[in-house]
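User: Reviewer 2 asked us to show a designed sequence for the structure in our supplementary figure. I'm pasting the structure tokens here. Could you produce the per-position amino acids so we can include them in the response letter?
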């Protein structure tokens, strides 16, 4: 939430125990120590992988990002240069007032399946708080949930990826090999040693 401070605006960067958040500010923000910021720039691999780029040093004004780091809150402030209520860069749209996420978008949530951008269904539109962002993925991406990888910022692939490349096996979230996709989180391992997660509703 934006707070007026003698001609400036302030906003809180709040990282939960899940260590991920989205953020946007109407002023330039120097990235606090211990945090990494990423823009979400598009999709690759026939719409199955999100492309994320790390922001170096400073988040530009009115630029929605994904943040990753240890739990905590940092207050930042600066001169407001925003002229509208929301801004889109790449696949993220940041808002300056509490907003119901549009149907078909994705909202960062911590559910039983894990921290992910989850698909917003009709009649189940969570509120995106001020200074946060939601994600919009092209329809051809065929992704129901976006999970973050252990070793990289970009780590989600959709069901379409199952038909591409050589698959070694499908595993449950607990690491047990299964014969087919199961409801919930599935870990798909390729013969080259790489893996990705797929959420099945």
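Assistant: Here is a per-position design you can include in the supplement:
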């Amino acid at each position: 939430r934006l707070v007026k401070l003698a001609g400036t605006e302030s906003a809180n960067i709040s990282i939960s125990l899940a260590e991920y958040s989205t953020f946007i500010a109407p002023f330039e923000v120097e990235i606090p120590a211990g945090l990494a910021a990423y823009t979400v720039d598009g999709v690759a691999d026939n719409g199955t992988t999100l492309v994320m780029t790390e922001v170096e040093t400073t988040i530009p004004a009115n630029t929605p990002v994904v943040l990753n780091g240890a739990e905590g809150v940092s207050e930042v402030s600066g001169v407001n240069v925003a002229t509208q209520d929301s801004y889109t860069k790449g696949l993220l749209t940041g808002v300056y007032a509490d907003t119901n996420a549009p149907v078909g978008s994705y909202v960062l949530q911590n559910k039983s399946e894990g921290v992910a951008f989850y698909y917003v269904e009709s009649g189940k539109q969570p509120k995106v708080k001020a200074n946060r962002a939601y994600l919009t993925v092209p329809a051809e991406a065929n992704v129901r949930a976006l999970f973050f990888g252990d070793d990289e910022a970009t780590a989600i692939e959709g069901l379409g990826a199952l038909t591409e490349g050589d698959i070694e096996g499908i595993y449950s979230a607990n690491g047990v090999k299964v014969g087919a996709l199961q409801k919930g989180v599935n870990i798909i391992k390729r013969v080259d040693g790489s893996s990705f997660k797929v959420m099945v509703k």
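For the response letter, you might also mention the following. The radius of gyration is 18 Å. Residues 63 and 89 are 6 Å apart (CA to CA).
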